[in-house]
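Can anyone check this?
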Amino acid sequence: MDSYEWIVEDGILCMVSPASEKHVPTAEQLYGFIFKQRGLPVPFASAPSPDTSLADLKFSRYPADVRLCTHLSEVCDEYKIRCCLVITHDEKRMEAPCRNLEFDHAVMDNCWYPFIHGAVDQIRKMLSDAGVAESAEYISLRQYASLISSDNAYDHLDDNVPDSINPANGGRQSGMIPIPPYFNGQLYPYQATGFRWLKLVSREDAGCILGDEMGLGKTIQVIALLCSETAERRGPSLVVAPVTLAENWRREVARFAPDLRTLIHLGATRTGFPTILEEFDVVITSYDTTVRDLSLFRMLNWNIVLLDEAQAIKNPDAKRTKTLKRIPRRVSIAVTGTPVENRLLDLWSISDFAFEGLLGTRPNFESEYGGQEIDSAERLERRVSPILLRRRLRDVASDLPEKIDIPQVLSLDDASSSEYERLRRDIEIKYGPHSSLVSLSRLRMFCTHPFLLKDHGGDPKCTPKYERLCELLEEVFYSGEKVLVFTSYTRMIDILGRDIQARFNVQTGFIDGRVEVGIRQSIVDRFTNEKDFSALILNPRAAGAGLNITAANHVIHYNLEWNPAIEDQASARAYRRGQTLPVTVHRLFYANTVDEVINDRIVRKRDIADKAVVGTSGQSNDIEDILKALRMTPMKG
């Protein structure tokens, strides 16, 4: 090169010397030269004027806006968080790497623009405070969280990561659904997105809160992650759940990941040796057991510690909360559909487990967010969004079937198991081979609620099934939605009606044989017109036909029916023409009891109906089901 010349390289106007050295003037120097007839300093004075040297290049008096931009990028079918600059002016937009912050101007669409004064300094400070090198293209989750919570984030950051995840914001719905090794199932697109997000969290030894609404398959996303972790030969993972859901977790893992080695660590026969736990890929235990066995759990370096129904640690002062935070782990995942139940401190406590330090210390948090709840929640949302993955049913409705069936397998506690066993033996002795479906009614009533067999004025939330019902209702009401609860026992309807209204401060109504047919529709109308979340409690025989109750998109069968047609007709009250959302149908039943026999019978009969079997002998399977129910016991061993 024989002389100085001006060039545009990577969006930057610079001068090249005869020795091929590049020099970049400041925006102030160029602006003064072009618009105020000031001379350029050395070495730029040795070059021709840039506006004559680059005849096609225009110069703008008005500055362009420069901001940081974060978004998810797919690299080898995995998510990474990309950070770059976005330069805009009117309708023009250009991306540039963060290393361009070395300069305070850019060329976009053949026009030179200075940057808004001070913007570059503010952005460089944000990156520095977050520990992000200006040469970095991808950033960690912790760095991303730091950028989001920066005081300058509102003015200088465009955060597009949530848009990449949430379909409601135009998020991606990739046709490439990754199926990890050991996983035996299919993922909906939004579930595949959730799985990839969990993988990003795991890859960075971080943590998160999986807060999808009920019915969206939080469990299946987690199981996919556990499969992927097992394929990568990481250590055992610990699933902590309410004791009533331990058997449900075991069955779900067996269904979607039958090759994973799974152990339920509960009861008097549980091991006390860490070497035994290390032999399994997934260990399932309860919150109370973690408190009792903390010294055992602390002997292992767990790969993932996952809390199901993580609102169980919403109280930071509770012993279980402090215990769980002491368990050694590489990754922390909190699964809850209700991350904030009563106060913002609930969210701090859960976040402190999932991503310690994200929301600061408890005193600082209470000082900053202890004022007006609504205002505090809005400010808190941005800070917690990097680790909270929450999709709503309406966001992904187009991906889902019209009806989502969720069988919820529960376990009786020890005392209830003993009482059930006593009832079972009494029936077996009294009826023996002459038993009928009717003779099992006391077992069915006990599985519905012990209060149906003996008067009791205590809290109905004393049984695992009722406790699970309350957890489901809490999540439904948290989402501002409505629910139908079906039970075939009049006394249970009365218990539910009184307790739900008092416990959740919601409007409740009921329809059973005591309600005249002529006024049933008016009860439905009141339920439909209720602006807030509410519950309607129904007998499936009295309200299982003729009524259209599409105001509810949640159905809970509190006790199952021998005849699947009765249950299906009841579910169809919400699942029918006029319903705009997928209907989530929960079916609660106890493992190893008459409840499970009824569930198996329903599944079997539906399978026959689906295959359109005709010409059968007409013989009933009642005898086989009765004998199975009389043999089945929840007693361990």
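Reply from J.R.: I decoded it. DSSP finds 24 helices and 24 strands in the chain.
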